[in-house]
Amino acid sequence: MTIHKEGRRLLLILLLILAALNVSLWLGGVTDWLRWGVLVVSVVFYLLILQFFRHPKRHTPAGEGLVIAPADGKVVVIEETEEPEYIKGKCRQVSIFMSPFNVHVNRSPVEGSVKYYRYHEGKYLVAWHPKSSTENERTTLVLETPQKQLVLVRQIAGALAKRIKCYVQEGDHLHAGQEFGFIKFGSRVDVFLPLDAEVLVNIGDKTKGGEQVIARLKS
Q1: Catalytic machinery residues
Q2: Which of 73, 126, 129, 78 is nearest to 104 (CA)?
C-alpha cells in the first residue's frame, strides 16, 4: 500500500506513541486483559488512520470532453445552479461527499490550465449542509480545457475535515486524473460544469477518483 505524503509523518509519530504505550504496559504490573485490550485497540486504530492516507494508483481514461471524478465518495448533488465566485452564471453542479473511509486524494477532472485559484477561510458546517459550499473553509480552482471550456472545482472542509491541501497555482497545467490536492478525513468536492454538459452519474452513485467518468463536455 502506498501512503500519501500528507500522512507519513503523522503515521510515524502515531506508531512511536502507540509502541511506547504498549511496551510500557507489557513491562509494567498490569493485568493481561488490559495489555491485550490496549494492544488490539492500538492496532485497529493505527490501521484506520493508515487507510485514511492510502494513495492508490489510478488509470485515467482518455478522450476529448471526458470529466473524471475528482474524488472517491458518493454523489450527493446534481443540479443546475448559479456560481457567483468566478463563472458568475448558471452551470451544472456535481458534488461528491468523501467519508472518512474514502481515499482523500483530489484529482483534476479535466486537462486544462489553472486560470484561477483562491483559498477562503470559513466555517466547518457538515459537508452536506446546503451552505457549506459558500460558507465553509474551501478552495476554488478553475481549469480552462484545450477547447476553452471552464470547469470549476471546489474543495470544501467539513465538521471533521479541517485541513485542505491544494498543490497548484495559477498558470499550472494539469492532466485529467492528476493529483492537485488532499482533504484530511473526508469532506466534499464540488464540480461546476457548463450547462450543456452531459452528466453520467446519478444521486447516490459511488465514484472512484481519477478513473470514473462522471460527465461529458459538449464539443
Answers
A1: 187
A2: 73
